[in-house]
Amino acid sequence: ASSKVKELDLSNFDKRNVNNMNSMFAYTANLENIDLSSFNTSKVRSMVEMFVESGAETINISSFTTERLENVSSMFGFCWNLTTILTSPSLDLTAISGEGIFKGDENIVGGRGTTFDSGACMAGYACTDIKYALVDGGESNPGYFTDSTTVTVTFMVGETTQKEVDVYIYHTVENNDIPEKENYHFVAWYYEDTFETEYKTI
To answer: Which residues of 69-107 are buried (b: 16+ CB within 10 A; e: fewer)?
Structure first.
């Protein structure tokens, strides 16, 4: 049965000695976002079905490390609403046992636009979707993860300017895209209180 829980506060949850996270957030159909950016996973060996059938659209695992991790099978399986998995730039699970890690995640999109490969986990065949368990490098090195690193940019609306910090680097700097915000015009990248690269208002 699915859980009716809509929000979780895990900020005081002690994870230091946890070695098994199997099904920890499984069947949490009403959760929209899961932020585990404070989790210590240095002793975790298994994350089998950790998020299976969760309703989350975004999952932040940017603090996850893999020193002892051995199995991530179906970790994100059948998360039908899931679009974004935020990770550290270096997280790579491709060498870990993890058949069906993204099975059924038809809405997943990597940081550089890689979309779901239905052929990687077809009925009657062994799943090969673990190959996408890394930060998206585009066509040359596709993945389903998004680098959680953010950059500060400046937007303008009317005669005022506002600094925004929720622009992920793989959507912008690395991919040379102009940041977008509804009803705003992009002005410049913003680094340490100085404009470093300016663009014309669009």
So the answer is: bebbbbbbbbbebbebbbbbeebebeebebbbbbbbbee
Per-residue pLDDT tens digits of the chain, which is 202 residues long: 556 667 777 777 777 889 999 999 999 999 989 999 889 999 999 999 999 999 999 999 999 999 999 999 999 999 999 999 999 989 999 999 999 999 999 999 998 889 999 999 987 788 999 999 999 988 999 999 998 876 666 666 666 666 555 555 544 444 455 666 666 666 666 554 444 444 333 3
Written as six digits, the tokens of 114 are 């890689």
Predicted TM-score of the model (pTM) = 0.78
Rounded Cα–Cα distance for residues 86 and 59 (Å): 6
Distance CA 21, CA 19 (A): 7
Q: How far apart are CA 10 and CA 201, in angstroms?
A: 41
Q: Residue 154: beta bridge partners?
A: 163, 188
